[in-house]
Amino acid sequence: MSPTRLRIFVLLVAVSAAIFIRLGIWQLHRRDERRARNAVVASRLHETERDVSSVPLNDTMGLTYRRLRVTGTLDYDHELILAARSHKGAPGVNLLTPVRLAGRDTAILVNRGWVYAPDGATIDAQKFRERDSAFVGYAEVYPSPTGVSYSGKPRILARLGADAAARAVPYPLALFYVVALGDSTGAADRPARLTVPPLDEGPHAGYAVQWFAFAAIALAGGAFVIKQARDAQRTAGRPRDASGESAASG
Questions:
Q1: Helix (H), strand (E), coil (C) string for 177-197
Q2: 142, 104 in Cβ contact below 8 A?
Q3: How far out from the chain centre does Cα 11 lie?
Q4: What does the DSSP 8-state code read for residue 125?
Q5: How far is CA 19 from the centre of its chain?
Q6: Residue 37: helix, strand or coil by DSSP?
Q7: 3-class DSSP state for residue 147?
């Protein structure tokens, strides 16, 4: 390997190792962010529940994951179905029902839970109309400003979005929805309530180890190649005897 090519190789190794180390540090930062989020979520989920009438419906600041009680009239005629939701490995849907609040024009969407659907989209929703008029759960912001309908059906969504929810009902909706908590086993006439979000640290620590390992491999491999190149250069620079062998080899 020529000196020029060796210098280029050394530069590439150094740059690659630096990138791998930076990515490892980034994953550790993401783990720390996840830990901080988990602490906030855990503290809010353990707070005393608040009645939804005591919070602003057009603001989500500091509301996510707070425990809320929603009491009102369920509007099953404008219920939404969130398709392709799995539960314990089985396909199904989530039922999102508008709840009309007494004395307020704005309603709030309540995710009542999961129902089995063989195709992940089609159910007889009338079988799961509950008599309950009160739900306790936690607040969630819409995951996207725009939703995606399922097979062109506006009330069956492949992705939940604030605009899709707003188009499905003839009255204003709160800027957040509530995930009802309770019995997660479900019944023949009742959805299985969803559970709180997982509070694990995710795969970030493992990814960080991988990136640091890549950096170590790059540095070790680069050092080996550099040593081999230098040994070859020293051998090539030694004087040779009449037999053509290096003078130091005898």
A1: EEEECCCCCCECCECECCCCC
A2: no
A3: 36
A4: G
A5: 24
A6: helix
A7: coil
- Report which of 44, 58, 149 is spatially closest to residue 105, judged by C-alpha positions: 58
Q: How much is the pTM?
A: 0.76
| DSSP state letter for 63 | T
Q: What is the pLDDT of residue 133?
A: 86
CA 101 to chain CA centroid, nearest Å: 31
Q: Are 92 and 114 in contact (CB under 8 A)?
A: yes
Q: What is the pLDDT of residues 177-235, one digit of tens each?
A: 999 998 888 777 889 999 888 888 999 999 999 999 999 999 999 999 888 888 887 88
The Cβ of residue 82 has, within 10 Å, a number of other Cβ atoms equal to: 22
Give residue-wise pLDDT tens across range 71-99.
999 999 999 999 999 988 899 999 999 99
Q: Which residues of 140-170 are buried (b: 16+ CB within 10 A; e: fewer)?
A: bebeeeebebbeeeebbbbbbbbebbeebbe
